[in-house]
Fold this protein.
Amino acid sequence: MKIVVASGKGGTGKTSVAVNLALSVEAEQYIDCDVEEPNAHIFLKPGHKRQQPVELLVPIIDEKKCTYCRKCAEFCQYNALFVAGETAMVFNELCHSCGGCKLVCPEGAITEEPRQIGTITVSESSGMSLVYGELNVGEALAVPVIAAVKEQAVDEGLVILDAAPGSACPLVETVHGTDFCLMVTEPTPFGLHDLEVATEVVELLTVPMGVVVNFAGIGDRGVYEFCERKGITILMEIPYDRRIAELYSRGVPFTAEMTEWRARFTELLATVETMVK
Amino acid sequence: MKVAVSSTGGSLESAVDPRFGRCSVFLIVDTETMKYQAVPNSSIGAAHGAGIGAAQSVAQLGVKAVLTGQVGPNAHMALSQGGVQIYTGAFGTVGQAVEAYKRGELRSASSPTVGGHFGQGGRAMGGGRGQGRRRP
């Protein structure tokens, strides 16, 4: 089973919830899909790491064959190609690697070559496989790196996927094809706003979801009222607790010391299993 | 000579749009006769690479120069490679900008005058990454 931990809003405690859940239920694998700022490995302190590049194919135009007909530039929806007069240019970082320019070129002047945009790391921690991706600085496309880390997913056992904040392409890529989405939010107008947007996206992907309210006790009742109205189950509340914050500040998953929480995460998983069936 | 002016509307009285890639209209003006043609900028809503798309459009129209307020890195690279001269600092109406150009009062931009995403406004402004590079 694949469970995504997402939120919409940043800083609600996605990674904390994902790591503590994974450790409590002894998940098979943890995949950090926040390829712009992966940080689950700070909690999980992995050992030996294997790295591999993530590459995208980008077009190379052979100007000896190019007749500057502009078909490639007209085809490209991302304006990654510019052709004018006797000039043909490729703006690599706008290229989404669809390969269309190569197909439409009547002269066979376009070939493709790989260009590295990031790296994925495969490692192990606490008997669990840990995978995370890193998008190179200055690169625009997180989705291919997320796809690359997801490709490492094991078929058997429980896989926890830690999503990036936000509700755009990275969330869609992370949630697509998974079994359940755990939305971590905070009970504030900000948490509510972003939860509303993110749940709308996950609904469209037809992935069942539930909510974890973190920092419970602060803020207002908006998140609770929203969940009730939408029929979204609140699976857990984690209090606004100084001890949790202190453990976090030292990079320690709180279930490592507050062991009574392990049973609660195990219960949460059992509930999720019934919701998926 | 034909020049393209980034414009907010379809006449010589329209105000110059300081943005190149995301202006509403390009006014293609013959500097001798002041006859003009208004061409809507199809890149205005482009999610990515509006400057390159706009450069592609004006280069195809056969203009020799672009008069605008600011030009970003990708548009600058595309226009200069495409043999289109770039003049920045244009303001007022399109007609006034063309007159200023004819009097030699506009700056020829040998490098981008703003970072990428200038025309998108908001926090992305000035976040450019230089030639041939850009954020989503």
User: Anything to note?
Assistant: Chain A touches chain B through 18 residues (CB under 8 Å).
